[in-house]
Amino acid sequence: MKPDTIGARVRYWRMRRGGMTQAVLAGLAGISQSYISQVESGRKTIDRRSTLVAIAAALQITVADLLGQGTEPGDPARDSAAQSVPAIWSALIEIEEGERRPPSRSGDELTADIARSDRLRMSCNYPAMARMLPDLLVDAAAVGGQVLAQVAYQASTCLRHLGFRHLALSAARVAVLAAEDIEDRAWIGASRFAFAQSLPIESAPLAARSADRSLAELQADAGDQRMRQMLGQLHLSAALTSTVSGRMDVARDHLTEATREAASLGDPPDGAGFNGCGFGPTNVGLWEMSIAAEQGESGKVIELSRKVRPQVLVATNRQQSYWLDLGRALADGGRRDAAAVAAFVQAERAAPVPFTLNPLARDAVVALAQRARRRAIPDDLRVLASRMGITLAV
Question: What is 1-68's CATH superfamily?
Answer without folding.
Answer: lambda repressor-like DNA-binding domains (1.10.260.40)
